[in-house]
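From the shared-data thread, chain only:
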Amino acid sequence: FGSQNIYCFEDALVAAYNCTVRVFDPVVLGGGAKEQRRGSNIFFYNIGISSTAAPSKDAKFQKLSSLLRRFGEVDRVIDILKIDIENNEWDVLDGLSKEGAFRKVKQLIIETHSGPPVNEPRAAQLIPRMRIMNQLRHGSPRLLKWKSYDPG
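Structure, as tokens:
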């Protein structure tokens, strides 16, 4: 579901819509490279999306709003936001919700993990998750695809 150096989805988007695609993955890109370009419209960054502000613009994880500022795209609508961030998606979704970022996202593709965070009661994690899912079901963005992974 994540990039894993497989760009079939991104290639198809560019071929069909001639759009710009930005891929953020702090794990895949090796050799110490911070960014890489694939063709003319696909950009890969060795950065992850976080729910909290980064201490610097070179941090390994940054808020989506910080990345949009970096690329001069603060007011730009995001047609598709695809998220696969291995157990951090709920914190990031909550952060995106609180800062109003969903107003700029038309469609969301996400893989979620339902395992409980360490030392957190199940009910305490479900209430915020239900609020986020309710917002996605009844508002913007349109939830295009949701894949849940529960190893237990």
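The chain has a mean pLDDT of 77.
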